[in-house]
Amino acid sequence: MKALLQRVREARVDIGGRTVGAIGGGLLVLLCAERGDTDALAERMLAKILKLRIFGDEAGKMNRSVQDAGGSLLVVSQFTLAADVSGGNRPSFTQAAPPDEGRRLYERFVALARAAHPTVATGEFGADMQVHLVNDGPVTIPLQM
Question: What domains can you pick out in the chain, each with its CATH number?
């Protein structure tokens, strides 16, 4: 499982000109399920994301988690994080989980996030989405489990 975290001041996901998910300050989580990923892996990924200390404290040091900072999560499916470009100029996505399994793991991750964190918004799995964000810092952290 892969994720790309972006600390944001605000972020939203639009589909067909309609906003389907939006947050103020917090984390935009671009999430990719890969072949062989499990529910346990989704649980570990979420635990890491919620505890990762990438928000500033009173001294301006990255010492607070999204939970400590009272930030929100915007979780967006992003199978292209599984891209392999080692064989040429056209990406291969064979490492991405098949669509049914990718959807199941994405929905499992979102359900876990909603159970563990007060504010969780989402995109729509498999949709053509436009993601708007104001990156804070900028802080962008790749994670792989």
Answer: 2-137 (3.50.80.10)
